[in-house]
Design a protein that fits this description.
Elements (H helix, E strand, L loop, with lengths): L5 E5 L4 H12 L6 E6 L7 E4 L2 E4 L1 E2 L10 E4 L3 H13 L3 E4 L28 E3 L3 H17 L1 E10 L6 H15 L31 H14 L5 E8 L6 E9 L5 H9 L4 E3 L11 H4 L5 E8 L6 E8 L3 H17 L7
Parallel strand pairs: 1-2, 1-6, 2-5, 6-7, 7-8, 9-10, 12-13
Antiparallel strand pairs: 3-4, 9-11, 11-14, 13-14
Helix pairs in contact: 1-8, 3-5, 3-8
Bound molecules: adenosine-2'-5'-diphosphate.
The site of adenosine-2'-5'-diphosphate has 17 residues, from helix 1 and helix 4.
Length: 341
């Protein structure tokens, strides 16, 4: 591509959309124009883009004329309807929803893990689930070194993963409870303030939630290895930004905790934050507002021969969503793949 691309952010008024705009600027993503798109509800309002204000336009089927790249974060049904229109108009879509992730014709990409999958895109590229992204950036280098046979993961996920309305719900429930009022639940089925919900997304026939099965299926697709067994329990916790995960892995080859630390300290996008004696370990307040995925509490699982436990935390809006999408766009640009074949 000779000229700088015209970029559209779909869902520009949302928690992830706003971060996408910030990330484009922060990383100096080349652009000749940036358009902010959202629903008719916010058409005509403005969103900040550095020192500029962008006027939000209503998303329609005609929104993609002359647009080279669209970053979507406006929910699955919006992506299902509009991503094909965009690709048809010659615009490459990086979609943050779950709509296209398991489509065999759509690459599901974490740039530190499987950037080469971008070479076969047909106009739509899927950005994985937030909790999967931060897990696979840590798993990949360990898998390359020792082949992971099984992963057992439990998550502690922030409300921002549900969107702006959930951030507002946690804030207002805390205020209501401190004022002796009843907490009003609109977004989640139960109170989220001072509580933990072992339900993220809907329950499926196999008794797992959709979020749990995303972690299972997306991990295999991104790692390009169906033989890795994954089981997940995903929990929403009253944290605003930053998903945490307790990750247990069983490997074919033994890795000591020291070896794992050495491997991970060389891994792109990973920051080893692991000095328990000094009370240094990953936490949401450490990872929020950062690009890296933090890993710590690395220790050998004494209940099996070749096992490791670790605690992995990342900013779910950054690496879990907006940053990963912009990094995908950066690779597309570097490899001259920002076109619909
Ligand atoms: P709007 O603000 O106009 O509703 P979040 O995940 O933080 O809730 O944000 C969701 C984003 O997706 C918002 O920008 C929202 O726009 C946008 N969105 C939701 N539904 C649609 C739709 N049908 N068409 C376009 N944008 C939509």
């Amino acid at each position: 591509m000779k000229k700088n691309p015209v970029v559209a952010v779909v869902g520009a008024t949302g928690a992830v959309g706003r971060e996408m705009l910030d990330t484009l600027l922060r990383r100096n993503f080349p652009h000749s124009e940036v358009r902010a798109l959202a629903s008719s509800r916010s058409a005509g309002t403005t969103v900040e883009f550095g020192s500029k204000k962008l006027t939000v336009q209503e998303l329609t089927e005609d929104s993609f004329k002359g647009v080279d790249l669209a970053l979507f974060s406006a929910g699955g049904s919006t992506s299902e309807k509009f991503a094909p229109c965009a690709a048809k108009a010659g615009c490459v879509v990086v979609d943050n929803s779950s709509a296209w992730r398991m489509d065999p014709a759509v690459p599901l990409v974490v740039p530190e893990v499987n950037p080469d999958d971008l070479s076969w895109h047909k106009g739509i590229i899927a950005n994985p689930n937030c909790s999967t992204i931060q897990m696979v950036v840590v798993l990949k280098p360990l898998h390359d070194a020792a082949r992971i046979k099984r992963v057992v993961v439990s998550t502690y996920q922030a409300v921002s993963g549900t969107g702006q309305k959930a951030i507002v719900e946690l804030e207002s429930q805390v205020r209501q409870l401190f004022n002796g009022q009843e907490a009003e639940c609109k977004v989640y089925p139960h109170r989220i303030a001072f509580n933990c919900l072992p339900q993220i997304d809907v329950f499926l026939d196999n008794e797992y939630t959709k979020e749990e099965m995303k972690m299972v299926l997306e991990t295999k697709k991104i790692m390009g290895d169906d033989s890795i067994r994954v089981t997940a329990t995903t929990v929403r916790v009253p944290v605003f930004y930053g998903h945490s995960e307790s990750v247990n892995i069983e490997t074919e080859k033994k890795l000591t905790s020291k070896e794992a630390r050495a491997i991970l300290s060389q891994a792109p996008g990973v920051r080893v934050f692991d000095n328990p004696g000094e009370k240094i370990y990953p936490m949401p307040i450490v990872a929020a507002g950062e690009d890296d995925t933090f890993v710590g509490r690395i220790r050998e699982d004494e209940s099996i021969d070749n096992g490791l436990n670790m605690f992995v935390v990342a900013d779910n809006i950054r690496k879990g969503a907006a940053l990963n999408a912009v990094q995908i766009a950066e690779v597309l640009l570097q490899r001259d793949l920002l076109r619909v074949p």
